[in-house]
Amino acid sequence: MTFLRLLARNRLALAGLVVMAAVVALALVTPLLPLAPPNVTDTGNRFLPPFSEGAPLGTDHLGRDLLSRLLWGTRLSLAVGFAAALIAAVLGAAIGIVAGYYRGRIDNVVMRGVDMLMAFPYILLALAIVAALGPGLMNALIAVAAVNVPFFARNIRGITVGIANKEFVDAARLSGLSDARIILTEVLPNVVPVIVIAMSTTVGWMILETAGLSFLGLGSQPPVADLGSMLGEARSALITNPHTSVVPGLMILVIVMAINLLGDGVRDALDPRLRSGALSRPMAATRVDRGDRVPPPADPEAVLALEGLETQFHVGKRVFRAVGGVDLSVKPGECLGIIGESGSGKSVTALSVMGLVPSPPGVITAGAARFRGEDLVGMPYGRLREKRGRSVAYIFQDPLATLHPLYRVGDQLVEAIRAHRPIGRAEGRARAVELLRAVRIPNPEDRVSNYPHEMSGGMRQRVGIAMALANDPDVIIADEPTTALDVTVQAQILSLLDDLRRSRGLAIVFITHDFGVVGQLCDRVAVMYAGRIVEEGPTRAILETPRHPYTARLIDCVPELGQGRRRLEAIPGLPPAVDRLPEGCAFAERCRNARPDCRAGDIPLEREGTRAVRCLHPETHPEREAAE
Amino acid sequence: MGRYILGRLVSAVPVLFGITVIVFLIMALIPGDPATAILGAYATPENVAKINRDLGLDAPLVLRYFNWLGNMLTGDFGTSFSLNRPVLDEVLERFGATLILAGSAFVLCAVFGIAAGVVSAANQYGAADKAITFAVLLGISIPSFFLGMMMILGFAVTLRWFPVSGMWPIYGDRDLWALLDHLAMPAVALAVVATGVVARLSRSAMLEVLRQDFIRTARAKGVHERGVIWRHALRAAMVSIIPVLGIQAGFVLSGAVYIEIVFQWPGIGRMLVNAILTRDILLVQGGVVFVAACYVLFNIAVDVAQSLLDPRIRT
Ligand code: SF4
Fold it and tell me: Which A residues, 375 through 394, put their C-beta within 8 Å of a C-beta on chain B?
């Protein structure tokens, strides 16, 4: 049902459907219409122009009524096109199902044959078949159908292989059903939709192909004419009487276009990626729509400061508040950790800084991100681009996916430099080697010409770090840079980052879900939950005396040394969906301290000295606090 | 690299072999016998028998196939009875003309198709995207032979920009300029459908790639959006565009048959259609096998290009 509704929503597809229905209806009623006989010649009235009396579309070179010939020809073309599609689909599906269901030898032989047939440019095969059978509409139909059988066979085989491996088919087999029964009752129903789609996208081609063969004089033979042979016969009078060509030509165009529109509509309606908007292209920078609500600058010492940052995802009518008002800042040489579960908004916060949140669907709806006092949000693209990589650089999680797979790592490093200043070949290479050495990659002279897939995960991440360092940025935002790596490599990367920070005075924003990592590297830490900061303060203090119940639970999840990994899922329950945030505290559902007032209204982030917490009933640590 | 090419060439041998078998079998199914077709009114039983002996048609099927194959391997494709000249000579001459036509159309469809797809994807849902999408729809729906006829009417007859048909001027020099003048319309008419298909696929391949993480990396390091689109995204999208170019080459070669008829281009497609109408079987066989073989070789070239582009499959 949703399928039909989606199809109806696609206006172009609907137009295609309407036109197609009209053409088919016209073709069906043609014998009933009061038309002149299509094949009776009248040499006295040759080449009458359109709008002549008794011949609304004029007459052809033998004085035959064009309107009548057009409608009869359309009827024939449609019939042949659909018949060819049907034959090709049935034969192709039969072959594909048998090959895909039985696999083994049969499959091998059949698919070899299919590959062989597909090695031909289709017309050669069609011509060879027509050459063998002789010209004629029936033979052209057979040729066009035959040429398209391999296409159907290959598609359907692929689907069948997938189905034949499913449990319900195994179950049917074990219960003793015959292969024929299983194919008819289990496989076929699943294959039919695929056949229909394949037909809807190829029937236009079939009509074109048969029309083409007729056009060449190899299809329908005089005096009977389909649209193709009408066009073929009209060709000799193209210059003197173009209307005889235009009439059938336009008809083919209209039919094929209507079918294509419809076919596209069917395909789109069935493509889940289109429905979810997963195929839309992210723009060069995140969309900003914050009206004139720009907060005043604060914290002059900070190299990077976020103020009331809000980033949302707009998907259809739903609004996901991924980041709901975040204030943060880092000073030069400082390392700030942002920690939270996946979906807490920590990565979106990080990506918002340089406008890297994919848009659509992302929109920055409020707040500011200031680099040395200058607001990056809403900055014109040209200026923002200049800052990317030079002022604030990123290190991402999975370096296999984040490095370009088809360029050598050296070239990718040079490109990062070249984005900000011109650099010659030799100098670029030298600089790339230098960068690789700086991140402690052995044999950097050889490694520069490696492709990413030729390196190990740890080495790739070092390349990622080298690329972030390429332009001596002031801030590096590292988005879970060690998550994809194993523990020893992880430790190496962390100590590398720490050294770089100390030697270069870098400010680092380190995003992670792991308090263990935060403890090794960060001076300060901010804990995020459901798009907001719930606790913030010096790392030592928070690790020792977490106030927010969520922070406390996160810290409990850190594995003791040598006990292997424990994951965050250890906290029961899930974070709330950010398009339906509850009233009051977002953590209330999972909180062991929750009381009714927690759900009553918004809870502010209360600051107290160097620490801040967003909780009405924070954890207490009497024993430790007493010790202090 | 050399090993890769060699491997692909070796793997093409069974395909080429299969092609000859298929062509031969189709031709062997011919109802009626070619001798009668050749002799026409002179088809006395003695003459028919003689022709059959001359053509080796009295031998068993398998033997006939290997005879034919063996002869072809030594460059003997037989003699066309309607043209009274060796099939191979005729095929080579005609194929040259087709290669010029189809080759230029292929270049056009690759360049403009990819460019249109990239521009379309880069402006998704924008005005350029909508215009291109509509043009593509029109392009893939219009029969190339009809388009060719309308182009003749518009650009040759009415505007007189280009000659109506043929490959060379009847009088005057056969220089490059004259060739381009004659080539322009048929090449464009032939390229239109394939351009549409390539544009469509390039657009979706680009959209797929533009969502990937390495694009975000390129942006994060400050690469200009132009570089992101044309250097990063297109390079990665080419991996899925190139195989489609290979398939489109087949479509261009197929479409050339119609275009050669419409524009009176002396190519192999027109030769094949005439050969079918005159039932010149040897000429059809030879032409089909030759073109199919060239197509297979071309696809190997496509695979090699693919491996040059993608270091991950080059092993
Ligand atoms: S505000 Fe209430 S529900 Fe929320 S974390 Fe604090 S105690 Fe728990």
Answer: 381, 385-390, 393-394
